[in-house]
Write a structure and sequence with these properties.
Distance between the termini: 21 Å
Membrane topology: Multi-pass membrane protein
Subunit structure: Homodimer.
Shape: elongated
Number of helices: 5
Number of strands: 0
Radius of gyration: 18 Å
Organism: Sphingomonas kyeonggiensis
Order of helices and strands: HHHHH
Bound molecules: protoporphyrin IX containing FE
Catalytic activity: protoporphyrinogen IX + 3 A = protoporphyrin IX + 3 AH2
Largest sheet: none
InterPro entries: HemJ-like (IPR005265)
């Protein structure tokens, strides 16, 4: 494999995918927690959800989003993204979706903190639907990364 990573490229890619799996596990779980947390507002159960969400953030979500971005950008640099390498349309599209997904992550963390203050105003059905966003993003991102249609 050409590029500054040489033979280490596949190792970096393997760890990129490992931390993608951790990040996605957290992003599938947090919106479920938010639904239960919102339902529990005003009951003693709410504090337990607050604790679970804080733990999920600290142990899974925050470290894995950082590592996925770091390793992903190293892979992208190796492919020549920052030198305007040709044939990387798939990577630009992937970056756009990952950027939006990172915004979703920020929103979900923000809503979790809002619920911790006892405030929560999203209709339960909407909150459940919003929880499907990461699944949709994963489908698009993996197709772009593996099939590289453009
Ligand atoms: C955070 C920003 C990210 C950047 C900058 C990034 C960048 C990259 C790059 C440059 C590659 C190497 C592609 C190749 O060797 O052909 C790669 C591989 C891959 N990425 Fe990402 N990625 C990011 C996030 C994600 C996310 C969120 C997912 C899934 C939800 C993902 C899934 C994959 C997969 C499955 C591969 C392996 C593709 C293959 O070798 O066939 N990446 N990524």
């Amino acid at each position: 494999m050409a590029g500054f990573l040489g033979g280490a490229y596949l190792w970096v890619k393997a760890f990129h995918i490992i931390f993608v799996i951790f990040w996605m596990a957290g992003l599938f779980l947090l919106p479920r927690y938010l639904v239960h947390h919102q339902e529990a507002l005003g009951t003693p159960e709410a504090a337990a959800w607050e604790k679970r969400e804080a733990l999920l953030r600290r142990m899974i979500l925050t470290p894995s989003i950082g590592i996925v971005w770091l390793l992903g950008l190293v892979l992208a640099a190796n492919l020549g993204l920052f030198e305007g390498g040709a044939g990387l349309g798939w990577l630009h599209a992937k970056l756009l979706i990952v950027f939006l997904l990172s915004g979703y992550h920020g929103w979900a963390v923000g809503y979790s903190k809002k619920l911790a203050k006892g405030q929560g105003a999203i209709a339960p059905r909407t909150l459940r639907l919003v929880g499907e966003v990461p699944a949709l993003a994963v489908i698009l991102i993996v197709i772009l990364a593996v099939v590289k249609p453009f």
